[in-house]
Amino acid sequence: MKLIPLPVIGAAAGLAAIGALVAYFGAGAVVRSLFAIGWDGFAAICSIHLGLIAAMGLAWRALVPGAPAWIFMWGRLMRDAGAEVLPLSQLGGGILGVRAVSLGGVAGVVATASTIVDLTLEFFAKIAYTALGLVLLVNLRPDLQVAVPITIGIAVAGLIALAFVVVQRHGFDLFDRFARALGRGWADRTASEVASVHAVLAQTYGRKAGLCGGFLLHLVCWVASAIEIWIALRLAGTPLDFSAVVVIESLLYAIRTVAFAIPNAVGVQEGAYIVLGAAFGLTPEMALALSLLKRARDLAIGLPALGVWQAVEGGRLWRRLTPRSVAFPVVKSVGPRREDHG
Q1: C-alpha 130: how far from its chain's center?
Q2: Are 289 and 37 in contact (CB under 8 A)?
Q3: DSSP codes, 176-207
Q4: Mean pLDDT of the chain
């Protein structure tokens, strides 16, 4: 009997949770909240998000000086599309981004190493974003007794991020020695590939300006992403201060990071929006509408991107499998060449 993968079970449970929440709080009320934002608001939110994706692509490109910026913008778009639209984890989206950047002309080892560093910088930026949200939360709602557990969570996340950096800098040496101890064959090849990635990682971490620029740009993008929900709430007639929206969004993404094993954080995002929004007066219907609005935004951006990606990959596969056309034989002249007549 074949076991069902845990991510599939998690996604199914999340979809069931979304359906139950919408039914409990009223599908009609959720739909009315969505329509209150309107198509113009939805288009504005999608446009802002595309701009943020491009900016985060530039943060990635800061780690690879000299490479065309558009390659990393495209790679970032594919990374997000894979993580938010397809039933993949964040890791799966990262792999898709590496593939896209590699096809754009960046060496595979550089694409892999820069992705690892970029994901690390973004993780640190998320921690700083969550810390900012915590400070604002304490100032806005000092009555909520959540500062201590959130602070502990931020500290643990920081330690995990630091450990991840240490593994990147030194863990590959241990793996390399282990692989070489196994002998020839796959171990030698694996050790060689790991050594190449490790070398590029060391070079990337040596670019201090690129590291600082990438981190700051990621942090700015995460803070700026709250503008989308701030605009949506104003259009829906239930405005909140921008600082309150930053609190909700920062804690939401912290919760999503913890729930990384569930594809697209299905169900988790909706529940988090209801709980966090209630602290600032948002109704459950509006909270659900905001979550569904984000999912619709991801589909509106991600599906066309994946369609283009499929066409590109399909074209490459077709050219690889289709035999070259056979040219007609060229009959060479058997007479003397013109230059032979002096």
Answers
A1: 17
A2: yes
A3: HHHHHHT-STHHHHHHHHHHHHHHHHHHHHT-
A4: 81
Query: Could you tell me if residue 16 is inside a domain?
Result: no
Q: Which residue is listed with tokens 């299905």?
A: 266
Within-domain flag for 271: yes
- How many CB atoms lie under 10 A from the CB of residue 55? 16
- Tell me the helices (H) and strands (E) count for the chain, helix number first: 13, 0
Q: Length of the chain, please? A: 342
How far apart, in whole angstroms, are the C-alpha atoms of residue 329 and residue 284?
74
| First-residue to last-residue Cα distance in the chain | 84
Q: Judge whether 220 lies within some domain.
A: yes
Give residue-wise pLDDT tens across range 288-313. Answer: 999 999 999 999 999 999 999 888 87
The answer to whether position 36 is within a domain reads yes
Q: Which domain holds residue 126?
A: 27-312
Question: In this predicted model, what pLDDT tens digit does every residue of 67-87 receive, in sequence order?
Answer: 899 999 999 999 999 888 876
Taking each helix axis from N to C end, the angle separating 108-140 and 27-61, rounded to the nearest 10 degrees, works out to: 130
Give the Å distances, CA to CA, from 165 to 121, 159, 199. 10, 10, 14
Give exposure, 207-236, as e/b (b: 16+ Cβ within 10 Å). beebbebbbebbbbbbbebbbbbbbbbebb
Domain count, the chain: 1
Report whether 293 contacts 41 (CB < 8 A): no
